Amino acid sequence: MDNPKRVLVVSTATRECKKAFEYGLSVAQKYGAELSVLHIVYNPFGLKGWVLNIPNLIDLEAEYEKMIQQAKADLDAMIQEAKSTIPVKEILKRGNPAEEVIATVTEEKADMIIMVAHEEGRIEHFIYSKYIDAIVRALPCSIFLVKVSLDEYVAELEPR
Fold first, then answer.
1. What is the DSSP string of 134-157?
2. Does domain 6-48+56-157 have CATH number 1.25.60.10?
3. In 3D, which of 71, 42, 67 has the Cα closest to residue 132?
4. Residue 40 · residue 93 · CB < 8 Å
5. Domain limits of the chain?
6. Which of 38, 51, 76, 132 sits between 20 and 30 A of 13, alpha carbons compared?
7. Distance set, CA 17 to CA 37, 47, 60, 108, 152 (Å)
8. pLDDT grade for 78, boundaries at 50, 70 and 90
Protein backbone atom coordinates (compact mmCIF):
# COMPACT_ATOMS: atom_id res chain seq x y z
CA MET A 1 0.00 0.00 0.00
CA ASP A 2 1.21 3.48 -0.83
CA ASN A 3 1.34 6.05 1.92
CA PRO A 4 -1.81 8.18 2.02
CA LYS A 5 -1.53 11.65 0.52
CA ARG A 6 -5.07 12.93 1.18
CA VAL A 7 -6.92 11.77 4.29
CA LEU A 8 -10.61 12.46 4.77
CA VAL A 9 -12.18 12.10 8.22
CA VAL A 10 -15.96 11.73 8.23
CA SER A 11 -17.78 13.43 11.08
CA THR A 12 -21.46 12.82 11.57
CA ALA A 13 -21.32 15.31 14.43
CA THR A 14 -21.53 12.68 17.11
CA ARG A 15 -19.14 12.74 20.05
CA GLU A 16 -17.36 9.54 19.09
CA CYS A 17 -16.23 11.15 15.81
CA LYS A 18 -13.52 12.88 17.84
CA LYS A 19 -11.79 9.51 18.00
CA ALA A 20 -11.80 9.26 14.18
CA PHE A 21 -10.34 12.77 13.99
CA GLU A 22 -7.52 11.83 16.36
CA TYR A 23 -6.61 8.90 14.10
CA GLY A 24 -6.87 11.09 11.02
CA LEU A 25 -4.57 13.69 12.54
CA SER A 26 -2.06 11.03 13.52
CA VAL A 27 -2.02 9.45 10.04
CA ALA A 28 -1.73 12.85 8.32
CA GLN A 29 1.17 13.89 10.56
CA LYS A 30 3.00 10.58 10.17
CA TYR A 31 2.79 10.54 6.36
CA GLY A 32 2.75 14.28 5.65
CA ALA A 33 -0.72 13.92 4.13
CA GLU A 34 -3.36 16.60 3.59
CA LEU A 35 -6.16 16.32 6.14
CA SER A 36 -9.80 17.18 5.51
CA VAL A 37 -12.78 16.77 7.83
CA LEU A 38 -16.20 16.29 6.29
CA HIS A 39 -19.05 17.33 8.58
CA ILE A 40 -22.32 15.80 7.45
CA VAL A 41 -25.54 17.31 8.74
CA TYR A 42 -28.41 14.91 8.28
CA ASN A 43 -32.01 15.23 9.48
CA PRO A 44 -33.11 11.67 10.35
CA PHE A 45 -36.66 12.83 10.93
CA GLY A 46 -37.19 13.88 7.32
CA LEU A 47 -39.70 16.62 7.96
CA LYS A 48 -39.16 19.87 9.80
CA GLY A 49 -41.02 20.11 13.07
CA TRP A 50 -41.62 16.38 13.39
CA VAL A 51 -42.78 15.82 16.95
CA LEU A 52 -44.59 12.92 18.57
CA ASN A 53 -47.98 14.06 19.84
CA ILE A 54 -47.66 12.34 23.19
CA PRO A 55 -47.85 14.57 26.29
CA ASN A 56 -44.60 15.20 28.18
CA LEU A 57 -42.33 13.85 25.43
CA ILE A 58 -39.45 15.96 24.24
CA ASP A 59 -39.20 17.30 20.72
CA LEU A 60 -36.84 14.68 19.31
CA GLU A 61 -35.68 16.86 16.46
CA ALA A 62 -34.75 19.69 18.82
CA GLU A 63 -32.85 17.29 21.09
CA TYR A 64 -31.02 15.81 18.09
CA GLU A 65 -30.07 19.31 16.94
CA LYS A 66 -28.66 20.17 20.39
CA MET A 67 -26.64 16.96 20.41
CA ILE A 68 -25.20 17.78 16.97
CA GLN A 69 -24.29 21.34 17.97
CA GLN A 70 -22.42 20.19 21.09
CA ALA A 71 -20.55 17.45 19.25
CA LYS A 72 -19.58 19.83 16.43
CA ALA A 73 -18.35 22.42 18.95
CA ASP A 74 -16.17 19.78 20.61
CA LEU A 75 -14.76 18.61 17.28
CA ASP A 76 -14.22 22.20 16.10
CA ALA A 77 -12.13 22.88 19.21
CA MET A 78 -9.95 19.85 18.43
CA ILE A 79 -9.56 20.96 14.80
CA GLN A 80 -8.55 24.49 15.83
CA GLU A 81 -5.94 23.07 18.18
CA ALA A 82 -4.62 20.75 15.45
CA LYS A 83 -4.37 23.59 12.92
CA SER A 84 -1.34 24.90 14.81
CA THR A 85 0.58 21.78 13.74
CA ILE A 86 -1.02 20.79 10.41
CA PRO A 87 -3.45 22.46 7.98
CA VAL A 88 -6.98 21.02 8.28
CA LYS A 89 -9.61 21.66 5.63
CA GLU A 90 -13.20 21.60 6.88
CA ILE A 91 -16.06 20.70 4.56
CA LEU A 92 -19.73 21.00 5.54
CA LYS A 93 -22.42 19.15 3.60
CA ARG A 94 -26.09 18.49 4.19
CA GLY A 95 -27.98 15.52 2.90
CA ASN A 96 -27.73 11.78 2.50
CA PRO A 97 -24.54 10.70 4.29
CA ALA A 98 -23.58 7.95 1.81
CA GLU A 99 -23.99 10.19 -1.22
CA GLU A 100 -22.14 13.10 0.38
CA VAL A 101 -19.19 10.98 1.55
CA ILE A 102 -18.76 9.32 -1.83
CA ALA A 103 -19.02 12.65 -3.67
CA THR A 104 -16.49 14.28 -1.32
CA VAL A 105 -14.00 11.42 -1.67
CA THR A 106 -14.13 11.98 -5.44
CA GLU A 107 -14.01 15.80 -5.24
CA GLU A 108 -11.11 15.84 -2.78
CA LYS A 109 -9.29 12.93 -4.46
CA ALA A 110 -8.98 11.28 -1.03
CA ASP A 111 -6.96 8.08 -0.95
CA MET A 112 -7.92 7.20 2.63
CA ILE A 113 -11.11 7.76 4.54
CA ILE A 114 -11.39 7.44 8.31
CA MET A 115 -14.74 7.03 10.01
CA VAL A 116 -16.31 5.55 13.12
CA ALA A 117 -17.72 2.03 13.20
CA HIS A 118 -19.35 0.80 16.36
CA GLU A 119 -21.80 -1.54 17.89
CA GLU A 120 -24.98 0.38 17.31
CA GLY A 121 -27.56 1.56 19.75
CA ARG A 122 -31.08 1.76 18.38
CA ILE A 123 -30.98 5.46 17.58
CA GLU A 124 -27.58 5.29 15.87
CA HIS A 125 -28.72 2.27 13.85
CA PHE A 126 -31.83 4.15 12.77
CA ILE A 127 -29.83 7.21 11.73
CA TYR A 128 -26.60 5.90 10.18
CA SER A 129 -26.39 2.12 9.77
CA LYS A 130 -27.57 1.79 6.19
CA TYR A 131 -25.33 4.68 5.12
CA ILE A 132 -22.15 3.14 6.49
CA ASP A 133 -22.79 -0.05 4.51
CA ALA A 134 -23.44 1.93 1.32
CA ILE A 135 -20.29 4.01 1.81
CA VAL A 136 -18.03 0.99 2.35
CA ARG A 137 -19.31 -0.75 -0.79
CA ALA A 138 -18.92 2.28 -3.08
CA LEU A 139 -15.62 3.82 -1.96
CA PRO A 140 -12.81 4.04 -4.50
CA CYS A 141 -10.16 4.37 -1.77
CA SER A 142 -8.89 2.71 1.40
CA ILE A 143 -11.02 2.94 4.50
CA PHE A 144 -9.96 2.96 8.14
CA LEU A 145 -12.79 2.19 10.55
CA VAL A 146 -12.30 3.31 14.13
CA LYS A 147 -14.03 0.84 16.40
CA VAL A 148 -16.07 2.28 19.26
CA SER A 149 -17.75 -0.17 21.62
CA LEU A 150 -21.38 0.22 22.58
CA ASP A 151 -20.28 0.86 26.18
CA GLU A 152 -18.06 3.76 25.05
CA TYR A 153 -20.87 5.08 22.89
CA VAL A 154 -23.39 4.99 25.74
CA ALA A 155 -20.88 6.64 28.10
CA GLU A 156 -20.44 9.44 25.57
CA LEU A 157 -24.19 10.07 25.56
CA GLU A 158 -24.22 10.71 29.30
CA PRO A 159 -24.67 14.41 30.16
CA ARG A 160 -21.47 16.23 31.03
1. HHHHH-SSEEEEEEE-HHHHHHHH
2. no
3. 42
4. yes
5. 6-48+56-157
6. 51
7. 10, 25, 21, 20, 12
8. confident
